[in-house]
Amino acid sequence: MNDQEIRKELDELKNQLTFFQDLGVEFLICPEKRAEASLSKEKMRESKNNDNPLLVNLEPVTGVTDNEEAEWDKLIHQIMVCRFCPLYKTRTKVVPGEGDRRARLMFVGEAPGRDEDLQGRPFVGRAGQLLTKIIQAMGLSRSQVYIANVIKCRPPENRTPKPEEIKACSPYLLKQIELIKPKVIVALGKVAVDFLLPGAKSMSEVRGNFGEFSGIPVMPTFHPSYLVRNEGNKEIKKMVWEDMKKVMKLLES
Ligand code: URA
């Protein structure tokens, strides 16, 4: 790495740490430590259930089963070729969602923006970079969670999706949730909140309190683009971090 590259890396690290500080993050969890901690929790559970250490862990670690894999393939194909609403005419790429299909934590946003439409990946623009930092502050990586949107194609000029577009697209998110079975969902912004917690009032009223969707706890919080639009407002960042701390507590329970 040359000097310029090192300086660039250090600037990025500084930005990241400043953002964590603004959120109100008090300490960082090193990913290896988190893995060790969950491993030892697992071991404790095993030894409680079974006194013979030679008999533990006989169950193979299961990932996505063949059947689920087939369902995922079908679902992603349906999303990629979808023409259920007029948004297919203006999209560049469909953005089905990405991440761990067995994730315990799922984030649901509104709809792809310009960058997402160009890349076919969710939350990769400015708001996405903030979301990535929030996920990292939680001691996780993007590949350990699942990130999806209510709408899979970009509405022109990033306008709010229309009710008929949400209705046409809804089976996809519903199926994703059914397949992933996350332990917690974070609803990012009003469109996701209205989808998962119908009848919710304003964001300021609902954020920070768990609701429920199909038996899954849903944490409503501000959309990362609201954080982008209010860049200098540390209070909003702190509120989002408070919400994420509740999510982490639930995940650890
Ligand atoms: N905003 C969203 O709601 N979703 C994205 O994927 C990007 C920006």
Question: How would the blueprint of this fold be written?
Answer:
Blueprint: H1 3-23, H2 31-49, H3 66-80, E1 98-99, E2 105-109, H4 114-119, H5 126-137, E3 146-149, H6 163-180, E4 184-188, H7 190-196, H8 203-206, E5 211-213, E6 216-221, H9 224-229, H10 234-252
Parallel strand pairs: 2-3, 2-4, 4-6
Antiparallel strand pairs: 1-3, 5-6
The chain binds uracil.
Here the CATH topology equals Uracil-DNA Glycosylase, subunit E
Report the C-alpha radius of gyration, rounded: 20 Å
Order of H and E elements:
HHHEEHHEHEHHEEHH
Largest sheet: 6 strands, mixed
Summarize model confidence as the mean pLDDT: 88
Distance between the termini: 42 Å
Architecture, CATH level 2? 3-Layer(aba) Sandwich
Bound molecules: uracil
CATH evolutionary superfamily: Uracil-DNA glycosylase-like domain
Name the structural class.
alpha/beta
How many strand elements?
6
The shape is globular
Q: Give the % helix.
A: 40-55%
Strand content: 5-15%
Total of domains: 1
Give the uncertain stretches in residue-range form: 39-61
> Mind telling me the CATH class?
Alpha Beta
> What is the count of helical runs?
10
Largest sheet: spatial strand order: 1-3-2-4-6-5
Question: Can you walk me through this structure?
Answer:
With 253 residues, the protein is of the alpha/beta class. It has a single domain, classed as Uracil-DNA glycosylase-like domain (Uracil-DNA Glycosylase, subunit E, 3-Layer(aba) Sandwich), CATH 3.40.470.10. Helix content is 50%, strand content 10%. A six-stranded mixed β-sheet has the order 1-3-2-4-6-5, with helices on both faces. The longest helix has 21 residues, at 3-23. The protein is globular, with a radius of gyration of 20 Å. Residues 39-61 have low confidence and may be disordered. Uracil binds at residues 109-113, 116, 122-123, 125, 127-128, 149, 225.
